[in-house]
Structure formats: structure tokens, C-alpha cells
Design brief:
Distance between the termini: 18 Å
Helix content: over 70%
Order of helices and strands: HHHHHH
Mean pLDDT: 88
Radius of gyration: 13 Å
Shape: globular
Number of domains: 1
Low-confidence stretches: none
Number of helices: 6
Strand content: under 5%
Structural class: mainly alpha
């Protein structure tokens, strides 16, 4: 969780390369900490939204949001704010591409979403 949290801060401050390193480390730890996968993918969605792949960001975000809804997990205020900044970043880069997949990909598993970011 520490790698995900640090990556979240780095995304907000614009240090995208270092954020990617921490998200990759977090992703490697996910098999042992299954509950972390949704949060790590939330971070990857934000990274993708900021680095030029708004469609994939939107796909991953759709899977993450559907996962949290399915398990009844509500994001805490900090992560809800993070989510809103990811959406804003994706829409600012390419609103049409960003908004095209979220609803369509709500049935995508977290494992499939993970494959998109690896």
C-alpha cells in the first residue's frame, strides 16, 4: 500500500516517471495482497490518463469502479478526490476517447485490466 500511496502523491505533483516505478512495484506485490489490486489499478488509470492513453485509462477505471461497487467498497475522501483528478486529466487530454470505455468496460475483471497495464 505504501507504493500505491506514494505513487498517488507523485501523480498529483506531476512526477509521472517515479509514480510509474512505484505503481509497478505495487502491482508486483498484488498477488500476495489481492485487496491492493483495485487501488493499484486506480493509480495506473491516473497515470495513463496523464501520459497519453486516455482510452486505456478509461477502460481500467471502468473495471476498478465496477469492482469497488460489486464488493460494496466506498473510496475514502482522499481516494475519491484522486479518482476525480484522474477523470479530469483524462477528459482534458481527450474527452471522447476517455469517456468511451468506462461504461462498456464495467464488466472487465481486474485481472484483465491488470493485463492492460503490464
Amino acid at each position: 500500500m505504501e507504493h500505491y500511496n506514494l505513487a498517488s502523491v507523485l501523480l498529483q505533483t506531476g512526477d509521472l516517471n517515479t509514480a510509474r516505478v512505484h505503481l509497478q512495484r505495487s502491482l508486483r506485490l498484488c498477488p500476495a495482497k489481492r485487496a491492493l489490486l483495485g487501488y493499484t489499478l486506480l493509480g495506473f488509470a491516473g497515470l495513463l490518463a496523464r501520459t497519453g492513453d486516455p482510452h486505456t485509462a478509461d477502460q481500467v477505471l471502468g473495471a476498478v469502479q465496477a469492482h469497488f461497487e460489486a464488493i460494496g467498497e466506498v473510496l475514502d475522501p482522499g481516494e475519491a478526490l484522486e479518482l476525480s483528478t484522474h477523470i479530469a486529466a483524462g477528459q482534458a487530454r481527450d474527452a471522447e476517447a476517455f469517456d468511451s470505455g468506462r461504461q462498456a468496460d464495467r464488466g472487465m475483471s481486474l485481472e484483465r485490466a491488470r493485463a492492460l497495464v503490464e
